[in-house]
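To make this tangible, this section ends with a sequence with its C-alpha cells:
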Amino acid sequence: MSNIDDRELALREEYEQDFSLYARDCLVIRTKGAALQPLFMNRAQRYLHDRLERQLREKGRVRALVLKGRQVGISTYIGARFYRKVSHNKGLNAFIVAHLEAASDNLFKMAKRYHDNCPELFRPETGKANAKEMNFSRLDSGYKVATAGSAEIGRSETIQCFHGSEVAFWPNADAHSAGIQQAIANAPGTEDIRESTANGLGNAFYREWQAAERGDSQFEAIFIPWYWHEEYATTLHDAELPEDWAVSEEWLEYQQLYELTEEQLIWAWVKNRELATASGGQIDEPCWKFKQEYPANAAEAFQTSGEASFIVPRLVLAARKRKDIPAYGPIILGVDPARGGGDKTGLVDRQGRVMGANVCELVDYDNLMHLAGYIKKVAVRIGAAKVVVDTTNMQGLTDRLAETLGADMVEGVNFGAGAYDREAFANRRIEMWHDMMRWFWDETGVWVPDRDDLQTDICAPVIGKGATHNRSNGQLILEAKDHIIERLGHSPDLGDAAALTFGIDMADAVQQQVGNEIYNM
C-alpha cells in the first residue's frame, strides 16, 4: 500500500464503486467495424452487472445462468469483469470455456486486448503467457481459455472465476458441468457464470435453465432480450425491403407487446426474413428460428421446428403485458399436487379474467398434512370460494382439505375421469385445458403474471404430440404429462394448476362465496 500514491488509491476506490467507469477508462474493445474504442456498457451489460453484484452481496458468491439473444455483449462484459478481478486481486484464476476453438481464441484475444490497452497504472506485470493463458506473476493470478470437447476439461483446474460460453452447444456438456463444478472452489467471492443462446430442448443447458427458473438449482436464471442491444435497429431508408412491404398484424402486435421502435421492428423483420428463408418459417410473423436466436422472453427461446403449442404462446404473452384488467367474481384456487419424480405442487388462483394475481407458485412438501395446512392458509389468505384439487392418486389430500376447510369449499377432480362432454373430450384434463384455451381467446382481454415459468407450463402441451383429435372417435386428447416430462424435463405443474381453476361450475362458486361471507360475518 505504501507504493500506491493518493491519486492511484482514489482512482482504484472510484473504479471499485463504479465498474462502468472502470470499463470506459481502462478497457478497449474492437467493434464490428474493426475499430478500437473504450468499453461503454450497454443496457444488457449494465443489467447483468447489477444482477450479479446483487447476488454477490446477498449470497457472497455468484452462480448465474444467462439466457440471451445473439451477440448482445454478454461475453464481452463477463470477460471484462473477470479481467478486472484477476488483474486486481491475488490468487484468482479465471477459466473460460467456449463451444468452438475459434470462439475460445476470440475470447482470449479480447482479454489480451483489455490487458494490452489498459493504462499502465492498472496493468499488472505478466509472467507466463501463450495463446491460451495469461498469468500475472506478482499477483499469482491468471486467465486461461479452453474449448469444450474433452470430457476431462477443467477437472485438473482450481478455479475461482468460471465463464462458460454458449454452453447449450457444448459436446459432453453434462460431463463438463460435473467436472467444472468440482473444480470451482466453494468459497466466498467465487463466480460461476454460464451463458448461451438456446439450442432446442433436452440438452444440458435447457435442463439447467429449467431447474434454475423453478428454484431447484444453485444458479440464478437471468434472461437478456435481444431488443436491449442498441445496435439491433435499422432505418427504413437503410433496410432492403420489398416495394410492396407492409407490416402485418402479427408484427404490429409484436411491436406493441415489447414497445419496439420502428427501427427495431424493421431490423427484426429483416432478420426474421433471413432466418425464415433458411429454416422454412413464416415471414409475416416471428418464426421459431428468430425466436430461438433472438428471444424476447425466455419462454419462447426454447422451441423446435414444427411444434405448435395447444395454447398459442402469443395469447399468453399478450395476457402478460396487459394492464388494468378488472378482477370480478369468486376466487378459484387450483391445486396440482406433487406426486414425486421431481414434481412440485402448483398453486394458481383465478378471479374472472384475472389469473395468478393472488397466488402463482410452486411449493415442495413431502408431508401430506403439512401440504394440506399450507394450502388451507393460502385459501384463507386470498379468500378463495373454491379449492379445486387434482385427486389422481391423491384423494387423501382432498379429504384432509375438505375436513379443514369444509366439504362445500373443496372440489376434487380426477384428470383421467370422464369429461362432462364425452363426445368432444377424452377426459376431464383436456376438457379443463380446452376451457383455459378458450379463456385466453377472450376478446375483452385476460391477465396473467408476467412470468416465463407460468407461460412455459401453460404452453407445454403441443399439437402433434397427442393434443389432437383422435381419428377413431373424434375426441380431443391432450399430450400426456409423462410425455411432456420426457420432452421438456419437468412437469407443467403451474399449467395444470391453472387449468384446474376451470374445473367447477361458476354458479356453485358464487353460492360458496356468499356462504363464506355470511360465515365470516
